[in-house]
Specification:
Helices cover 76% and strands 0% of the residues. It contains 5 helices and no strands.
Length: 110
Amino acid sequence: GRGYVLRRLLRRVLRTVRGVRPEGSLHQLPTDLVVHTIERLGLRSVHPEVVLRVLRDEERQYDRVLERGRREVSRLQRRRTIGEPEYGWLWETHGLPREIVDDVLQTQNG
């Protein structure tokens, strides 16, 4: 559904932000920017604090997914090469899309 697509979009943006600035965060956006965006989208009933809280919560959840993913990828790498079956298992079991697994592999392999 829509929540899934938005979560994937937020995670992709967060990956991009952290690729440029590792300490980067979406929930630290200036409130004025959030207010401006809400107004431009015609969502006047949405409070900026709610948007920032959702961003913070999604970032925390994403960080947990990444940490779990790093452990699983390391565990799999010790046993075998990661191929299509492992990518599929990581996606179906842990919700780790291929690009995140590839990022984890690249980070671990230097």
